[in-house]
Specification:
This protein is of the alpha+beta class and 150 residues long. 39% of the residues lie in helices and 23% in strands. It is built from 4 helices and 9 strands. Bound molecules: zinc ion.
Length: 150
């Protein structure tokens, strides 16, 4: 229950309402999406589940679009690494140009693992690469050993 002071236009106190909160509860609320009246609990914001879902979907759609395209890059990167790995095997020197011409996006990776020697390994999920000097990469599959011996 909140107290509410009501002032006149001159700014002097004219009224004191002790049941402000219950007075607010009787005020009809409208749905945040469709503006229809909302009935039920005092903290209810939507007229039904459909409006609530649509409202939140619209709110998150920009974020979802961004996440979707990043996930697409990550999956594509992993697919390229997997293809090279199946052809050449792990830890083979591959020209970085091979990844670039396949559409590999070097900006996107899920995590990186620093190494005590040399460049870190950048992973796209369970497959990674390590940039070597002179424009080559090693394709590195993630396994327990990668975590144990950095
Ligand atoms: Zn609604």
């Amino acid at each position: 229950m909140n107290d509410c002071f009501i002032y006149n236009q001159a700014g002097s106190f004219v009224w004191f309402v002790t049941r402000y909160h219950s007075a607010m509860r009787t005020t009809p609320k409208t749905c945040l999406l469709c503006s229809k009246p909302v009935h039920g609990r005092a903290d209810k914001k939507f007229c039904n589940d459909s409006c609530r879902n649509l409202y939140h979907n619209q709110l998150n759609s920009e974020t979802n679009d961004c996440m979707r395209s990043i996930n697409r890059y990550l999956r594509n990167n992993r697919r390229i690494l997997q293809g090279i790995l199946q052809q050449k095997g792990p830890f083979q020197k591959i020209p970085q140009q091979v990844l670039q011409t396949s559409g590999f996006q070097f900006l996107y990776y899920t995590h990186q693992q620093p190494r005590s020697k040399g460049a870190p390994v950048f992973y796209c999920y369970d497959l990674g690469y390590r940039l070597l000097k002179s424009g080559y990469v090693h394709i590195v599959p993630l396994n327990e050993r990668n975590y144990l011996f950095q």
